[in-house]
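Here's a chain:
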Amino acid sequence: MKLPLTSLDNKKVGEIDLSDEVFGLPVRRDILARAVNWQLAKRRQGTHKTKTIGDVQGTTKKPYKQKGTGSARQGSLRSPQFRGGAVIFGPVVRSHEHDLPKKVRKLALKTALSSKQADGKLVVVDSLAAAKAKTKELAGKLGKFGWQSVLLIDGPAVDDNFRRATANIPNLDLLPQQGANVYDILRRDVLVLSKAAVEHLEARLK
């Protein structure tokens, strides 16, 4: 499929041919959901923890004698039935990470790219570079496109001036092509790829 190639001045400078194998797949929400859940699970710290009876500070003395009180027998004031006692089946420190097959991860990335193309939210620019690291100047250029939420993906190396100029622009993310991922693509409304990014993504995902 062909897509117009634009410049950062919002002018058409040609056309680019996109591979149907990468940008023309049917949108499968189940694959996208699996990839997003896998990514977010890896991010979780897993440092949540409640105290077991061995962690609760307090006396180890038996609260009262075993028999003759008419109450249920008790062995510790640190037991979960007492205020300030332990918690039963609470969360423990652990990793939430789980596996996702490589071919599913690859398919999910291609599906995410295809979904943006299908929605008309994919823009290809000739290059993502700036002569000066000036946020105001670059924000003015990007403002002509009317993007409210955008992810920019460049080639293997991001232009340093462009990176510094975009750092303070809200609702804008910038990634090199090797950092392209399903979650970031889906969380932003518009996906902008440089010509170099398209070439490297197609070579990587075909």
